[in-house]
Specification:
By secondary structure, this protein is α+β, with helices and mostly antiparallel strands. The chain has seven helices and 19 strands. The longest helix has 29 residues. It is elongated, with a radius of gyration of 23 Å.
Amino acid sequence: MNTCSVHNVSTLQLGDHICIWDKSRWPFRYTHHGIVYHMGTCADKVEVAHVWSAIADFRKSQADSRFQITSLTEFLNHRPLDDMRRVQYNSSIIADAFSRLGEVHRSRSDIPPIVLARCNFLLGMGRGHFDILSLNCEHVALWCKTGIIWSKQLYNKATLKAPFLKSTSQQEIQRLMKLEGLIQGYKFDAEKRNRELQAMDGKRVFLQVGDARFVKLLGRSLYAVLNDPKETDPIFRHQPTAFRLSIDVTYYNCVQITLDDQSTGHWLCSRSHCVKMLNRQPFHRQSLFKFEYGWNGELQSRRNRQWYIGVQTRDGMLRTYNTRDKAAYFKIIAADPVDKNEVLVDAEKI
């Protein structure tokens, strides 16, 4: 299975880079690229920002193309959803080497607010400036994600500060400065969020899944369980497992964590189709126990960057999936304040 495939459009997140393979011009194939601008439950409700024209004629559509927002249905343009991919960033050398052109990148993506700010900057621009060789939809989507105008299909890099921005008028300079100010503000907010996480380094934490469930260790496996502090029967009251958090922030958009259970000395590790607590040995690779904590709360394995931690529907067990479609979204919460609140609830019952 292609790990970049999108099987459920409702799993698309803001700022996701997507592409669709076009096979209509055989023997040539190419990908059309865009950025998810608005989430939705179906293709008609998902909005995509991309360089596009509604004109069917190829040459006329190139002249009319501009950066605009359309539905995902229009983005697909009668092409099957099975041919759509979620472009993967921060991939390994091996994944990059064996991937199709344009589906996987080793570079790191900026956070979604910055990606959307770049999209807003470009809206309405580009009419008459589209060039399939030097400035196409992939150049633009890569710039929105990374700030670099680059096309992997053509191995072509542009030297412009922004797509379609060929003049150096005072007005354009001011627009660029305003965009840069927004980007720096979002980076500052991300760094503040990272400092809050770093304040929990070495401390007890809970992993919250969604709005109401927490991660609990049962045997060597982990499960997402409901933890209701108002439940009086201890049999039905699932106390979540507290982990010790170790966190490493190398850049504003790069947060790596490890989690261990001090009571057992076991560490959270990722394996094919499962997530286990394992007794760490000197011969184990560090990447086995490391996870990247994404902007939306995804936990991505550093052992295999195509693996994301998700939750099985049938029993709530945590496991690895080789697609982000099934990734769960976690919140890291300090355990001590939660424990104190539960003590207060128990005291009120007495």
